[in-house]
Task: inverse folding
């Protein structure tokens, strides 16, 4: 018993224990997070390290650094407690060069903080797509000045990379595959999403606004991305917002304003390469009452200079299959851009809803608001001038 | 009464340690000590009880508050009482056990340390909140033999249940203490949770009187007169069948969820507010769709579907033990069946329709 107590106290206290020998890295790492001071760099060596409980960091100014996203692996395959793999509640945070695998909930959640850098981190559920996987891979929420670059996010049952309720955001150079949503920017302001690869998800890149949260999102630029073959069957839990995303969605804009989509390579997304919709046709399960202050209409959507190949030939939900059959025949395909056509009735003649400047791509309005009575392509309606947003500048970087 | 029971075996005086020198042993604080199988509290500490407490896998809890000599907490009808520097709040987690050392999840407990004996009870952990000049510090101590030992990193203990099976008992790490006690997540500062009028305003059998009156009479509390008690808020005792159903359910959600699900809490990201305050119906969950619940939605559409608890995310998340779906996120590996029944009954009698 005495020996057990001494071991316990040495394991649990950094002070007064001399140099304990052969402590598992899992323990020293957890302790380093718990006792972190601003300026600490916490190194993770090469190896796979297994955790039963969430890791938590609450100290500002800490860097967590591994030896590479395939070399330093934090595995939560045996997790029994905690809703995240790593939970960070701090500012001036950097995490890089490591992997977080098989968490029961979110892999990396950063809840409130300024100056967040997440780079060369891999979050993955190693069994592949499954409804039992955790919801989010990389998940900053209520953050400001956020850089998410060169990460890999695979098989999240919601979004591989999800930026929520945040401001001033750069998401670049990431690869997101086999998630329900590859990259999702939700209720966020000023985001640049570029140079990413978002292939083989249910939906590649999503720009959403949801009701009943205080922050309204707008001003997102999605450009220079590769968004191909996002045709993985939707494996989200029913009832979640993304459970309504049709398989085959390339870039999907819902209820968001001032979204600029340009210079992307879009190919073989079999519902459509680009989808624009209001809250009313988001396919969220069930009809939902809207808070009065919520703006359900996408407006000022600028689509230009993208490259399109294939797509639209196998819509991921029944009503779109029927519509495709009715308009283009069973061997036909939707055009590259589809829109539910639902506009704010108080602004019926508003022309700056979606402006399109593409060589060949067409936009089909589904006329969802009138039970699909008159689906139509009317490019003149979308010939409004392209308005450009300023680039996001991350302060201090 | 309590003082008499403890006479003759009380620990030395309470010692408040500085942040750079927190002791490894709980006994070094002089607050709680185990002597001959009995639990002795320093006479300068005061046992207190809440109307409704946080559910922690059916653990019994012994809560104490210590204020430095000559100081007082200041009464506030709405917020956590301000406690002076040097104050220490302790919460000891324990279980009643059977002859085979298996723990009981249904046991009566009056919060009287005289009822404790190591022959009949098992100590798990004692968590301290220490009020320093910079704010509150949280310190988890894990019992092992005759003392408890500081464990900044927390732990996971497998405990045999008398009802069969094994309980994965989670001892939170220091940072996980903040998961609940950083009730203002933006500031990140730790705060006590139970030291509020609405939780303390109750009759306590140990003292034979209302607890706020007792605190006032024993000099713990200033700015409070018995006349104010009439206006003081009081949460329900969740399991008291004769109290108002909505009041009991809201009280339970307040202490079990409101520390995160409040306007400044960690879960304000969800837009769901469950602290006991006046919020719009939607914010309290009525017909409210989930935001980022992931598979925690359980496949349901709204936090609360009036009249349909079995279709409501709120009751679903209380009734699962999957750590990727359950609520609260931490500190529970069993379902609180009785509370799930309470919340079900409450939702089932709500009227309205989600359109």
Result:
């Amino acid at each position: 018993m005495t020996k057990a107590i001494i071991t316990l106290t040495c394991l649990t206290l950094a002070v007064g224990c001399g140099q304990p020998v052969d402590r598992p890295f899992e323990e020293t790492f957890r302790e380093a997070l718990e006792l972190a001071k601003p300026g600490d760099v916490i190194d993770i060596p090469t190896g796979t390290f297994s955790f039963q409980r969430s890791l938590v960091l609450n100290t500002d100014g800490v860097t967590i650094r591994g030896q590479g996203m395939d070399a330093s692996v934090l595995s939560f395959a045996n997790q029994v407690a905690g809703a995240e793999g790593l939970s960070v509640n701090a500012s001036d945070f950097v995490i890089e060069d490591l992997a977080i695998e098989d968490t029961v909930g979110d892999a990396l959640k950063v809840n409130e903080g300024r100056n967040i850098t997440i780079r060369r981190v891999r979050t993955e559920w190693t069994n592949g797509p499954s409804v039992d996987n955790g919801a989010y891979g990389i998940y900053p929420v209520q953050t400001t000045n956020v850089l998410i670059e060169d990460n890999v996010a695979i098989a999240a049952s919601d979004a591989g990379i999800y930026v929520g309720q945040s401001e001033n955001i750069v998401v670049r150079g990431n690869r997101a595959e086999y998630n329900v949503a590859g990259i999702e920017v939700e209720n966020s302001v000023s985001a640049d999403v570029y140079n990413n690869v978002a292939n083989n998800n249910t939906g590649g890149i999503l720009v959403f606004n949801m009701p009943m949260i205080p922050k309204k999102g707008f001003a997102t630029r999605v450009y220079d991305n590769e968004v191909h073959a996002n045709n993985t069957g939707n494996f989200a839990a029913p009832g979640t917002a993304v459970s309504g995303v049709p398989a085959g969605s390339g870039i999907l804009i819902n209820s968001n304003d001032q979204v600029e989509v340009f210079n992307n390579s879009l190919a073989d997304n079999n519902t459509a390469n680009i989808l624009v919709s209001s809250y009313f046709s988001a396919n969220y399960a069930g009809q939902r009452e809207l808070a009065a202050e919520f703006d359900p209409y996408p407006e000022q959507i600028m689509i230009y200079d993208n490259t399109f190949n294939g797509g639209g030939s196998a819509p991921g939900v029944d009503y779109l299959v029927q519509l495709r059959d009715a308009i283009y025949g069973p061997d036909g395909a939707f055009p590259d851009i589809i829109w539910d056509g639902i506009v704010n009735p108080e602004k019926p003649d508003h022309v700056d809803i979606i402006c399109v400047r593409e060589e060949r791509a067409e936009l089909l309005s589904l006329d969802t608001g009138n039970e699909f009575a008159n689906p139509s392509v009317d490019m003149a309606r979308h010939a409004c001038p392209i308005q450009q947003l300023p680039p996001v500048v991350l302060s201090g970087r | 009464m309590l003082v008499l029971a403890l006479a003759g075996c009380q620990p030395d005086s309470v010692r408040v340690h500085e942040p750079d020198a927190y002791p490894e042993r709980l006994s070094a604080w002089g607050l709680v000590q185990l002597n001959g199988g009995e639990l002795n509290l320093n006479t300068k500490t005061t046992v207190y009880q809440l109307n409704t407490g946080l559910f922690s896998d059916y653990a019994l809890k012994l809560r104490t508050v210590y204020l430095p000599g000559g100081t007082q907490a200041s009464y506030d009808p709405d917020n956590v009482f301000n406690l002076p520097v040097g104050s220490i709040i302790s919460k000891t987690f324990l279980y009643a056990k059977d002859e085979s050392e298996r723990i009981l999840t249904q046991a009566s407990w009056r919060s009287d340390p005289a009822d404790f004996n190591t022959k009949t009870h098992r100590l798990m952990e004692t968590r301290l909140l220490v009020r320093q000049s910079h704010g509150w510090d949280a310190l988890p101590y894990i019992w092992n033999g005759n003392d408890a030992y500081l464990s900044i990193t927390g732990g996971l203990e497998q405990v045999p249940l008398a009802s069969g099976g094994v309980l994965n008992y989670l001892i939170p790490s220091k940072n996980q203490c903040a998961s609940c006690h950083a009730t203002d997540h933006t500031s990140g500062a730790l705060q006590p949770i139970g030291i509020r009028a609405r939780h303390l305003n109750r009759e306590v059998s140990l003292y034979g009187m209302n607890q706020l009156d007792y605190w006032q009479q024993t000099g713990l509390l200033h700015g409070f007169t018995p006349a104010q008690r009439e206006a003081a808020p009081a949460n329900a005792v969740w399991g008291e069948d004769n109290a108002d159903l909505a009041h009991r359910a809201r009280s339970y959600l307040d202490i079990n969820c409101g520390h995160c699900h409040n306007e400044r809490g960690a879960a304000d990201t969800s837009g769901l507010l469950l602290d006991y305050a006046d919020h719009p119906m939607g914010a309290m969950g009525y017909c409210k769709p989930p935001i980022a619940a992931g598979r925690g939605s359980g496949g349901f559409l709204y936090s609360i579907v009036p009249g349909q608890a079995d279709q409501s995310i709120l009751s679903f998340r209380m009734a699962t033990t999957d750590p990727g779906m359950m609520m609260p996120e931490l500190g529970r590996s069993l379902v609180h069946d009785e509370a799930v029944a309470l919340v079900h009954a409450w939702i089932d009698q709500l009227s309205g329709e989600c359109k």
Chain A is about 10% helix and 40% strand. The longest strand of chain A covers residues 106-124. Chain A has one domain: 105-382. Residues 168 and 393 of chain A are 7 Å apart (CA to CA).
